[in-house]
Amino acid sequence: MWKEMIYIIFNNKRKILNSERIVGLMKKTVLITGSSRGIGRATAEVFAKNHYNIIINYLHSEKDAFSLASSLEEQGHRVMVYRADIAKRDQVEAMVEKSLSTFQTIDVLINNAGIAQQKLFMDITEDDWNRMLNIHVKGMFYCCQCVLPGMIRRKEGKIINVSSIWGMTGASCEVHYSTAKAAVIGFTKALAKELGPSNIQVNCVAPGIIETDMNDLLNEKERSSLLEETPLLRFGTPTDVANAVFFLASTKADFLTGQVLSPNGGFVI
């Protein structure tokens, strides 16, 4: 990495900036909610390899979040870690404010944070229902509202929401999860129509069965059954999903908006 100082012109005044600082300012920045583990972690790694500044959001997994940050920083990437409950607007506002003061812009927002739970419909409590909808839907709503002013002002930005195949097909014993993930898809399509004139693309990924701790709830019989229903005869990896997310954030997807990309191995066709 360069260490020399170089001149730039900023607001009609000549300033000297360390070239490392200039490289950081020239990079795009991505905010990934729920990025300490699983799909979020893999997504942070993929974006870092493609020269993005990374904002890691977590709620409970502090050790994992800082472990990821240390790994990325050792590779020369600029990283910010922020603990926030995305289901609480004031915490989202504070996270976005800190992100903007650190990196000036948020160019890509990835609404990835989520939870899973298996319960018979009649056993779902109101607290279960509210928690599922608050994290998946209200959290996405808050993050978008807080990040969008800068994107609209610049007339440029990408939002990628993480849904699930169960948001497309529904899943027995996961009615509240399926409902939340279906809402993510509907939100994506409607917001894409509204933001199109501002040159902001809003898309969605709907992963199939992915090898993450969220699927540790599955027993061996369930895993075998799902594997048999997957034409590619394997479960996906977090990196499979991360690559799909990065594609939607890239210039190659500039004419895609309101779409659902589903890396699922052929489980849903």
UniProtKB/TrEMBL annotation:
PANTHER family the record matches: 3-OXOACYL-(ACYL-CARRIER-PROTEIN) REDUCTASE, 3-OXOACYL-[ACYL-CARRIER-PROTEIN] REDUCTASE FABG
UniProt organism field: Desulforamulus ruminis (strain ATCC 23193 / DSM 2154 / NCIMB 8452 / DL)
Record family assignment: Belongs to the short-chain dehydrogenases/reductases (SDR) family.
Record key words, sorted: Lipid metabolism, Oxidoreductase, Steroid metabolism
GO BP annotation list: monocarboxylic acid metabolic process; steroid metabolic process
Protein name: Short-chain dehydrogenase/reductase SDR
Highest classification ranks of the organism: Bacteria, Bacillati, Bacillota, Clostridia, Eubacteriales
GO molecular function: oxidoreductase activity
Xref: InterPro entries: NAD(P)-bd_dom_sf, Sc_DH/Rdtase_CS, SDR, SDR_fam
